[in-house]
Design goal:
This is Sulfotransferase. By secondary structure, this protein is of the alpha/beta class. It contains 15 helices and seven strands. It has one domain: Rossmann fold. Helix content is 49%, strand content 7%. A hairpin with a 7-residue loop joins strand 3 and strand 4. It is globular. 43% of the residues are buried.
Length: 346
């Protein structure tokens, strides 16, 4: 589960994995020695990457897609040894527990348990491309897929092997930071599918702002919560906030404080302007989707076979997306620019 629900033993194991230099690598090497042949034979076909700025609806789309029998995703049970899921599943299975579903730390109504899918792919990016993660922000890139094609393929194979046999396994990743890396991912995986949920910019910015302020309090109260988010590469909010350095973000950072709503609206513009011209992205208008969810169409667009059970279970997860009234003080110029971009993307 997330950091706020970790007990003493959970925290100790997490620190072993991330704070001890050889923690992740030791289990990964053991996995390779014991199961290397099994891992190597796993297919990597048409991986699906769900990405957007946080609070757009990536978790909902991941939850829906994870219901499909052909799909493989990371779950909370893969923590903390994310890089060696097969070995960790075998070891941790000895003391596996079933935890009741509870609201995640975002306080947004999303319920999770140990088997819920989650975003842990960023651990691989931290390992393979540490130069992207500066103190002031996360750089775009890499320019090509050479740096990540093999390590990412290897992680996908390990994850598929950890889940057992499947007829046609498709990897699904939720990683908000991948919105800055679509070109490199396309280069590494020419048959990849990209899913980008879209949310009305003012609603989206207000949700981002709310979570940022919330996590400022969480990080002030819990050093472990801060360490946890840093270790798994979640830099969206709070004291850890490092914006993705899209074109134009230098001016945004200079002009606005992250405690202001205008900062997040300007950030929204930079992010979606960066990918607006791409023709290989499946945009999902979340207001329309949550009002009348068409899970069958989503599966079809991603090349997943029709599955009635997934459609029913996925539809049951959908709730209307939260709308906000426009508060006083929001920049008219930013609001109008963001709305125009949003309408063009819809």
């Amino acid at each position: 589960m997330d950091a706020l629900n970790y007990g003493f033993l959970d925290r100790a194991v997490h620190r072993l994995a991330f704070k001890v230099d050889f923690g992740q690598e030791m289990l990964r090497d053991m996995e390779e020695r014991l199961y290397g042949a099994e891992i190597a034979k796993q297919p990597v076909d048409s991986p699906i990457f769900v990405t957007s700025l946080a609070r757009a609806g990536t978790t909902l789309l991941l939850e829906i897609l994870a219901k499909h029998p052909d799909v493989v995703t990371h779950t909370y049970r893969d923590m903390p040894f994310v890089l060696s899921p097969l070995m960790w599943r075998k070891l941790s299975g000895r003391f596996r527990v079933d935890l009741a579903r509870r609201e995640r730390s975002h306080s947004d109504g999303m319920l999770v348990d140990a088997d819920s899918p989650e975003a842990f792919e960023e651990v691989m990016w931290l390992r393979e491309c540490p130069e992207l993660f500066g103190e002031d922000g996360i750089a775009l890139g890499p320019e090509t897929g050479d740096r990540i094609a093999e390590p990412k393929s290897d992680l996908i194979r390990r994850l598929i092997a950890s889940r057992g046999p499947a007829d046609a396994p498709r990897y699904v990743s939720k990683n908000n930071a991948n919105i800055a890396r679509l070109s490199a991912i396309r280069d590494a995986f020419p048959d990849a599918r990209f899913v980008v949920p879209l949310r009305a910019p003012l609603d989206h910015a207000m949700s981002l702002h709310r979570q940022h302020m919330r996590y400022l309090d969480i990080h002030a109260e819990s050093g472990f919560a801060s360490d946890y988010m840093r270790d798994i590469g979640h830099f969206e909010f709070g004291d850890l906030h490092r914006p993705i350095l899209f074109p134009g973000m230098d001016a945004v950072i200079e002009a606005h404080d992250p405690k202001s709503l205008d900062y997040w609206l300007a950030y929204w513009i930079c992010a979606y302007r960066h990918i607006a011209e791409r023709d290989d992205v499946c945009f999902v208008d979340m207001e329309r989707f949550t009002r009348a969810p068409d899970v069958a169409e989503l599966l079809k667009r991603l090349g997943l076979r029709a599955d009635e059970a997934t459609e029913q279970a996925g539809t049951a997860l959908v709730l209307p997306i939260k709308r906000y009234d426009r508060p006083d003080g929001v920049s008219d110029a930013l609001f109008e620019s963001a709305d125009a971009l949003f309408q063009s993307l819809r």
